[in-house]
Specification:
Blueprint: H1 5-8, H2 12-33, H3 35-43, H4 65-70, E1 86-90, E2 98-102, H5 104-120, E3 128-131, H6 139-151, E4 154-156, H7 163-173, E5 177-180, H8 182-194, E6 206-210, H9 216-226, E7 229-236, E8 241-247, E9 254-256, E10 261-266, E11 280-286, E12 297-303, E13 305-306, E14 318-319, E15 324-325, E16 330-332, E17 335-337, H10 339-349, E18 356-363, E19 366-374, H11 377-380, H12 384-402, E20 407-411, E21 426-428
Parallel strand pairs: 3-4, 3-5, 5-6, 6-7, 18-21, 19-20
Antiparallel strand pairs: 1-2, 7-8, 8-9, 9-14, 10-11, 11-12, 12-15, 13-14, 16-17, 18-19
Bound molecules: 5'-O-[hydroxy(phenylacetyl)phosphoryl]adenosine.
Residues 90, 133, 139-140, 210-213, 232-237, 241-242, 299, 301, 322, 325 line the site of 5'-O-[hydroxy(phenylacetyl)phosphoryl]adenosine.
Length: 432
């Protein structure tokens, strides 16, 4: 179902017109309300009236996570604090947390974009949605919550964790939709198996998974284990939270809600905008946000944009499933390695459990990548010879994909830490 056909299926000309208008207004507001941006404009000798429309986007300054930290906690807000009705914060793995704020209108818009996302994944008012994203400062729980209420579905605001209760609730209340990180979905799926609950004893039919990168192979694994169709939802606190983009039934990229967030792809080294179809770093400019509007925010996420109309009828630009974050990219002996590449190899082999972790060490000035892979229960009981064979096959397949040598360590079942939120895939001991 299309939640807002007027917007989601409008002509490219109409989208551009809306974006041009929104951008002009936003730039003017930022110039007059946010000293940080005014100073940047002055330094660049740029007048807000130089920005006529999206063709001038490239003239605008970038915004970095560090800018939010430097202006901590609310220095980049564009409205007085009295107009802020909600605050969230992103913990950030490095450095100080960043704080984001929403006006009432921002919250309405957030519910609207999440409602679009849920509808594009086929969620309807009759559904029962178990929201197992964390509630609290993280935007996942409350972000999904209000969008779900907007479409009139029943919300179970269970938040993350307490796996036993998740399973019981899923069974007793008949949840039809599960919203959580893909790694927590995997954990829940395994816990279901362990407690002897079969797919027929639960009513799940849709998964709304995001907040971390995950591969198509992981999608198939989750779909098989839970008997669902799994959809990718993308977002980030600085821009809004979940709901910036989501897959439709065609699953041919995630439709970006570009009447609110203008995406660009840039080369992360030269910072030049890249044409449609080329992979690079996603950058977003908000054009309707009031509380914390941002110009050209550098996400560090790698993706590609496609503008053609989707078979679902939506004209909103599609971003490819995120390949990963530039800061999660490991450089091992000069070769770029993303956890998603290893996930694809492991899951397409179907011989191990889907749990893995990458450990990087520097020994005698040489980077060593060790891939820890959890064995399947049945394999674990096998003879050493068979386990050695499996180790060799994994090594061969990963080395073929990455083009560098790696060490594989098959570890006992249930030894890699499970996550109720975003999974920790990399332990880089070089940085210690
Ligand atoms: O993770 C918002 C969110 C909540 C999105 C629930 C989807 C579902 P942050 O904690 O600020 O916000 O983290 C944002 O997470 O820059 C990406 O690196 C990553 N990320 C989010 N969604 C996806 C996704 C939330 N679908 C950061 N695929 C982003 C890959 C994702 N990475």
């Amino acid at each position: 179902m299309i939640w807002n056909e007027y917007i989601e299926c409008s002509s490219r000309d109409a989208i551009i017109e809306r974006q041009n208008k929104g951008l002009r207004k936003m730039v003017e507001r930022l110039y007059f309300n946010v000293p940080f941006y005014r100073k940047k404009f002055q330094e660049m000798e740029l007048s807000p009236y130089d920005i006529k429309g999206i063709e001038d986007l490239h003239k605008l300054p970038f915004t970095y996570k560090q800018d939010l930290r430097d202006n901590y906690p609310m220095g980049l807000f564009a409205v007085p604090q009295s107009e802020i009705v909600r605050l969230h914060a992103s913990s950030g793995t490095t450095g100080k947390q960043t704080v984001v704020g929403y006006t009432r209108k921002d919250l309405d818009m957030w519910s609207e974009v999440v409602a679009r996302c849920l509808s594009s994944a086929g969620v309807v008012h009759k559904d029962i949605v178990q929201i197992a994203y964390g509630y609290g400062l993280f935007t996942g729980g409350l972000g999904l919550h209000y969008g779900t209420e907007k479409i009139g579905a029943s919300v179970i605001p269970i938040s993350g964790g307490n796996t036993h209760r998740q399973l019981q609730t899923m069974q007793d209340l008949g949840s039809t939709v599960l919203a959580c990180t893909p790694s927590y979905a995997l954990y829940l799926a395994e816990s279901l198996e362990k407690s002897g609950i079969t797919k027929d004893q639960i009513k799940l039919r849709v998964g709304i998974f995001g907040a971390e990168s995950w591969t198509d192979e992981m999608r198939r694994e989750l779909e098989k284990k839970l008997g669902i169709k799994a959809f990718d939802i993308y977002g980030l606190s600085e821009i809004m939270g979940p709901g910036v983009a989501c897959e439709c039934e065609c699953q041919n990229g995630l439709h970006v809600n570009e009447d609110h967030f203008i995406p660009e792809i840039i080369d992360p080294i030269t910072l030049e905008p890249l044409p449609e179809g080329q992979e690079g770093e996603l950058v977003f400019t908000t054009i309707t946000k009031e509380g914390l509007p941002l110009l050209r925010y550098r996400t560090r996420d790698l993706s590609t944009l496609h503008y053609g109309t989707c078979s679902c009828g939506r004209t909103l630009v599609r971003m490819e499933k995120c390949k990963g974050r530039t800061d999660d990219m490991l450089i091992i002996r000069g070769v770029n390695v993303f956890p998603s590449q290893i996930e694809s190899v492991l899951l397409s082999m179907h011989e191990t459990s889907p749990h893995y972790q990458l450990i990087v060490e520097r020994i005698n000035n040489l980077d060593i990548l060790e891939v820890h892979v959890e064995m399947d229960e049945h394999f674990f009981a096998d003879e050493i010879r068979k386990i050695e064979g499996l180790n060799k096959r994994i090594k061969h397949n990963i080395e073929n994909t990455l083009g560098i040598s790696v060490t594989i360590k098959l570890v006992e079942p249930n030894t890699i830490e499970r996550s109720e939120n975003k999974a920790k895939r990399i332990i880089d001991n070089r940085k210690k």
